[in-house]
Amino acid sequence: MSKKEYSFYPGCSSQKGASASNYQVSVDSMCDVLDIKLNEIPDWNCCSASIGYAGGGVLPRLALSARNMALSEQAHGDQDIVATCAACWLATRETKERLLHDEALMKDTNEALAAGGLKVEAKQNVRHMVEVLIEDFGYDGLAKNVKKPLDGIKIAGYVGCQTNRPFGIAGESFENPKYLDKLIETMGAEPVENYDKKVSCCGGALIFSEPEKSHALIKDIIEAAYDGGADMIVTPCPVCQLNVEAYQDQINAKYKTKFNMPVVYYSQLMSVAYGKSGKEAGLDGQVIAARKLEEIAGK
Amino acid sequence: MSTMNQAKVEKYRNDFLKEVTANVEEGEWVKMCMQCGVCAGSCPFGPYWEHPPQEIFMMIRAGKREEVLTSTSMWMCTSCYNCIARCPRELPITHIMHGLAHYADRLGLAPKNQPTRKFANLFWNNLTKKGRANELKLGIALYFMNGFIEGIKTALKMQKMGLNMFKTKRLSPMELLGGHGIKDTGGLHAILKKAREIELANAEKFNG
Amino acid sequence: MADEIKIGAYICQGCGIGDRVDTAQLAQVAQRDAKASIVREHAFLCNAEGVKMIQDDIDNEGVNRVAICACSRRAKTEAFNFEGVAITRGNLREGVIWIRPDTDEARETTQDMADDYVRMAVTEAKYMTPPKGDDNTKYTPKVLIVGGGVSGMTAAVEAAKAGYQCTIVEKSGALGGAAAKAWKRIPQHAPYADPEDTGVAELIKAVEESDKITVHLNSHLTKTSGAPGRFSADITTESGSTTTENFGAIVQASGYFEYDARQLPELGYGKSANVVTQAELDAMAKEADGGPIKTKDGKEVNSVAFIQCAGQRSEKEGHLPYCSGHCCLTSIKQAMYFKDQNPDIDTNVIYTDLRTPGAGGEDFYRSGQQKGITFTKGAVSEVVASGDALEVKFKDLILDEDTSEKVDLVVLATGQVPNSGVDIEAMAAVVEGEEDGAEPEEPTAVQVPVESILNLTYRQGPDVPHLKYGFNDSHFICFPYETRRTGIYTTGPVRRPMDMQQAIEDATGAAMKAIQAIENAAKGRAAHPRSGDLSFPSFRREGCTQCKRCTVECPFGAIDEDEERYPQFNEERCRRCGTCMGACPVRVISFENYSVDSVGQQLKIVDIPDEFEEKPRILALACENDAYPALDMAAMNKVEYSAFVRVIPVRCLGSVNLIWITDALNSGYDGVVMMGCQKGENYQCHFVRGSEIAHVRMSKVDDTLQSLSLEPERVSVHEVAITDIERAPALINEMAETIEKIGMSPFKF
User: Fold this and answer.
1) All structural domains of chain A
2) How distant is the Cα of C239 from the closest Cα of chain B, in angstroms?
């Protein structure tokens, strides 16, 4: 199969020394196996996620994503824009849809972009990495590269919010998307059936401003994974990963729980299943070590 | 702006609805709510809203301008998009809440000490400065957003989490010195400035 | 020759009947016990060869009674359709082999069952005469339509299009009714976004241009007599001149009155000229004709509040307890009158539950929101004058607070009160009360000037009976338009509240029913639900005691009384339910193919084993409309039930004569189960009152049981729906268990 190329929008959290840097490491090694070439959008900027609204109005926020798209058009022509971060994907895709459905908005946005010497058409597809995997490779295609099936690991597929709503992965339902479970199965692991917090919110950015309320949500997400007999949680979203993994100490202190639940990215599962080392799969970036994955990676 | 703050609003008339339509992101959808309450039942922070979304929509229609714009409610939105996915009338509720929050903030009516309001502003300032979010600076600013003493307490509470992140190289002390950023900050700032200008001009036009 | 009874009994071996029961024995039973003249077995009776065999016997052997012992009477009706003979069916498939286990232990009782059903089928045939039909029928392809509103005009135009002459009798001086007073109507076409032209002018034009439609304005009916096919109506004008015409059927489209808003002083009606009803607002809009709508004192309206459910959906005295269905959409339409003229006019619709029925209802609501109409979930307590404006005080049910709004104009969404004529049942109750010497009860319903619409000369009263809230009785789900007066169909808001679009659809249906009635009457056939039935009831005059039960109980007012106070049957009005037959204490009423004997002799021919054989017998009388099909479907699902039951289908539980129960108990049956349809306000009885009447009659069966010293549990009456596929067999099994508990009947010989 020939190399597949995409215009890549990594996002702030994937940068070196940032909270999802290990996600990026695993994505790189996964793409290596799948022969995917990610062409980084030159000089991309932050999308303002879903929390920039207080300071930025609609148009400034859309302008941020429009600038990224404009840069992508300039550098990578009609390559699909691919993001690994749920918020980056959502903000960019939403901008594309809104610009294409509102001529006045398109005009205003281009007027703003012109101040920075740019112009946007917003014609390229804006896709999440998961969509690339499912649609361009398919579960069978992804299964072909499995060298070390993840036998004996039970995993709760935590889809979360922003890869699921309001756009979601094509063909999946909002209330019970199946793609993550299918990916888990494809990698040889066992998904938790009926994981009832699959699409629940972890608090998102409000973990910072409303920590107690968010911790209560996270507690339920982890508890449901334990109830389902999960060895670990897998997610496609950097915010979900951070929120569910990194605050378990604080939640344990508050709720007298003994959570020690590893939370990994789908790309980490895939890297390990594809025979990459623990380091290549970014497992050294886990706050809570994913021992069962490490064992397989170490074999 | 000050005249806007004292806008006279008659009860159950369209005055405030028109103001919202002109100034708030997706505000033209407010009138389409049919009061089913699915949004309130779908919100992860539902119990914490002083007025759940459908109530906010009704308050707008009832002309409760002051109460809406000073409310903490829309600052409770976690952007999970559950309400959007489930709204039978397909109202972009998440966006309307963001829009109301932004408008209240712009008018200076948003509650001063609302933590999400503060954090959201910090985030915007942080990202627009260099074009990318600086998680460490953002974190430190966040600890101290409620003052120095509170900040030290929060920082201590968060110490272990921070250390974990440092250890796993997911938080870098290098960020304090410069850190990540884009090259063309000038261009970005010009774009944002222009965008803001256009937006305000559009609202003016609509307000007549 | 015609009077000589020659019964052919035909026993089918197909569908497994031959494998499960001894058909040779059945043939023997048919001949020996039931005295069939010709008995034949066939491997596949419903195929062409089997059918030909029967037809040959009819043609060549003079067979005039055919007893088909095969499947249920509800199956293979097309194959087993022989002209000019009486046909009975012994149900060996659904009634026997499908409901019994195929085991050695069950074989004997299964055979017993089949034997009995063969005896019963042949016996029933013996007591049946092929219906000849009514010779005195008339064909009058003319429809009388009472009311010249949208419903009436639509019915006329539709019937005229189908080739029937129509006469519209309209009380007022113009066609159009309530709709003609409206400026626009709720939209009927996609995208359902804006009010549409009422279409009344075109409808009037269509009526006036039709050479088949005659219109009598300023007229009403002073006398209506006859029956389907031969109605005679006196049409009297205001000036008093009367013409008499004959009609085949009648459509009553007498519409509604607007609820009297003066009963709502708390909402300011009558106190302020700026509180108006929806009808008044439409008149104002018509006056403005697209320009600004002005109040009575000539001021332009800048703000309006619409108060939904004004005096409706309320249990308060003098209010309407029901929802009139159209008012929410009407308020949206009217709010658009303002918004479309000037979007800056504030319009607030205050509702407790917004109901927007119909295909486009939700779209129209959305369009209203799009146009900026405010919708407030709230309960209005009061409207008071406040300076120039009106203050609407209400509780906002979303914000949970008492609040108010100041507006220039208030519109009250008041409801529809049916113009359905005299409530003949209340009238009868009053008469009965007077006879009993009791004070007549004060009616609490909303009072409207009550004049008879039809002035029927029927024994049971001058108008079509009401069901609830004064609306005419017509089963609005199962049998819309059908009233309890055959050939008279109600349509439009007189039978239930509705808007213009619904009235148009409704009237189209009523026109079709009227046409069916005309055609059926001409052929002497029954109308719904025994459509096509040629039999009709006759009575033995010399046996009649003039007790009036039949004339009182007939659900369809088919029986008048002649000058000598004997019952006078109007066949064309009859639905062939047999309620009169069930009512008759001296058993003088019968149909050619359904009589006290045709059922009574069946139950008597059943073999009653003596006490020591431990084979009880249960008689089940099952309504052919619901209970019997439910048992058939149970059989298709292979639901087992007791082998001791013998099921006889009846036309309606109302046709069950007490003598059958007495005879059954006297002849040694251990239990009797009766299954009719749901009765009461939400009745499902195909004959409206049959099941109810039967329940009343059977409440008196205890006396019979007592006189025989039998336990009351031996007789049970149930309401069974067609969907009771599990329950109907369970009721039979329940009786079998009861008998096991209380023991066998002592009346076995």
Assistant:
1) 4-128 (1.20.1050.140), 139-298 (3.40.50.11810)
2) 54
